[in-house]
């Protein structure tokens, strides 16, 4: 069976297989999420990542080989981030009146997120690199990786932590907000966008357009505030 | 549709160029989002162009999918995750949920106060 080996070499070299597997895993995860009536716990990002990570480990495929192909999907994160301006512009009339309160909440919430990460890292005596990787965990992946590199963290670990935070925030955040009696869709959007970046925003957009617009706004503002302020604060506190 | 995609890429490109030219610490797409937002507001019409809306809504309705390739990267960190699992999982779980609670309560209180100040009850 020389043919089979040839097929394998082809599949491993071309981006087609990784790309197809990513889309199929997403479709399967969406089917699970729909079967669970979009319950927050049935988060499609979590299911798709588990499926693909399990497949890579089971088949002994290198992540870098997988990413070669899957990077075409990954690339679209940039244009999608830019596209968040569209729901924001559409909701601008509703957003504008509440902008000062939203901005203040995002900045305070972002600072709280960073302090909580550093505090937990210190309290459980994690290595300095791990603690530095935990500080920027609530902002969108590319910002978090850049900030982590600047303050002595491990960018790749930060990426993994950021995605986990997004999944946890999207899956369990709505329950926390219900428990605390936060029923205002604007406040719910601000909270999810500040703590759970794009993954939370994806969830908010699916549930309520107002929450989605505020979540996108909060995600962008927190990325801006964290990128500008966290390295400065870090230098002040550490130096 | 291509026009909408070109507009998104153009904003991202302008964002990346600005970030590098001025050595800003913010990623290019976030600046691109601010640029597109400013452009949409400058049109002084509430509805964004239809071609742009179609592409933007298409991308955003599957925003979760776009995080999957980076998320699968956890497989690279399995040994580190096994070693430092306690602070990592506590920071992810407790840190994130506490942040959501604090931010949500604060936002709701501030929004109410702001509206009371404007004397415009909801």
Describe the model.
The complex is a heterodimer of chains A (about 240) and B (about 120). Chain A is built from 13 helices and no strands. With about 240 residues, chain A is mainly alpha-helical. The longest helix of chain A is centred in the C-terminal third of the chain and has 30 residues, at about 210-239. Chain A has two domains: about 1-75, no CATH class; about 80-239, no CATH class. The mean pLDDT of chain A is about 85. Chain A has helices at about 1-15, 15-35, 45-60, 65-75, 75-85, 85-90, 90-95, 100-125, 130-135, 140-150, 155-180, 185-205, 210-239. Chain B has about 120 residues and is mainly alpha-helical. In chain B, about 75% of the residues lie in helices and about 0% in strands. Chain B has helices spanning about 1-20, 30-40, 50-60, 65, 70, 80-85, 85-115. The model of chain B has no long low-confidence stretch (mean pLDDT about 85). In chain B, α1 (about 1-20) packs across α3. The two termini of chain B are about 40 Å apart. Chains A and B meet through α2, α3, α4, α5 and α6 of A and α1, α2, α3, α4 and α5 of B.
Secondary structure layout:
The complex is a heterodimer of chains A (239) and B (122).
Chain A: H1 2-13, H2 16-35, H3 44-59, H4 63-75, H5 77-83, H6 85-90, H7 92-97, H8 99-123, H9 128-134, H10 141-150, H11 155-179, H12 185-207, H13 209-238
Helix pairs in contact in A: 2-3, 2-4, 8-9, 8-12, 8-13, 10-11, 10-13, 11-12, 12-13
Chain B: H1 2-21, H2 28-42, H3 50-61, H4 63-66, H5 68-71, H6 78-83, H7 85-117
């Amino acid at each position: 069976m020389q043919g089979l080996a040839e097929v394998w070499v082809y599949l491993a070299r071309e981006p087609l297989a990784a790309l197809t597997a990513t889309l199929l895993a997403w479709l399967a995860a969406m089917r699970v999420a729909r079967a669970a009536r979009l319950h927050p716990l049935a988060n499609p990002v979590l299911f798709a990542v588990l499926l693909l990570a399990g497949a890579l480990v089971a088949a002994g495929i290198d992540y870098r080989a997988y990413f070669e192909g899957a990077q075409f999907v990954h690339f679209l994160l940039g244009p999608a981030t830019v596209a968040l301006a569209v729901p924001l512009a559409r909701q601008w009339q509703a957003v504008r009146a509440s902008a000062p309160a939203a901005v203040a909440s995002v900045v305070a919430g972002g600072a709280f997120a960073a302090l909580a990460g550093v505090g937990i890292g210190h309290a459980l005596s994690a290595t300095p690199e791990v603690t530095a990787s935990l500080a920027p965990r609530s902002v969108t992946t590319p910002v978090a990786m850049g900030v982590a590199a600047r303050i002595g963290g491990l960018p790749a670990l930060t990426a993994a932590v950021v995605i986990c935070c997004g999944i946890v925030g999207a899956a369990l955040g709505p329950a926390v907000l219900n428990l605390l009696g936060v029923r205002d869709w604007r406040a719910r959007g601000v909270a999810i966008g500040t703590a759970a970046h794009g993954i939370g925003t994806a969830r908010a957009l699916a549930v309520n357009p107002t929450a989605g617009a505020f979540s996108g706004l909060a995600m962008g503002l927190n990325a801006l505030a964290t990128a500008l302020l966290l390295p400065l604060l870090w230098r002040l506190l550490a130096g | 549709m291509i026009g909408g995609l070109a507009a998104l890429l153009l904003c991202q490109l302008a964002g990346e160029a600005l970030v590098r030219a001025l050595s800003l610490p913010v990623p290019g797409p976030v600046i691109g989002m601010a640029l597109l937002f400013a452009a949409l507001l400058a049109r002084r019409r509430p509805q964004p162009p239809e071609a742009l809306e179609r592409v933007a809504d298409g991308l955003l309705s599957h925003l979760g999918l776009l995080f999957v390739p980076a998320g699968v990267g956890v497989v690279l960190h399995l040994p580190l995750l096994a070693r430092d699992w306690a602070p990592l999982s506590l920071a992810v779980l407790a840190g994130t949920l506490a942040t959501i609670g604090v931010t949500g309560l604060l936002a709701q209180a501030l929004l109410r106060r702001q509206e009371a100040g404007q004397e415009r009850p909801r």
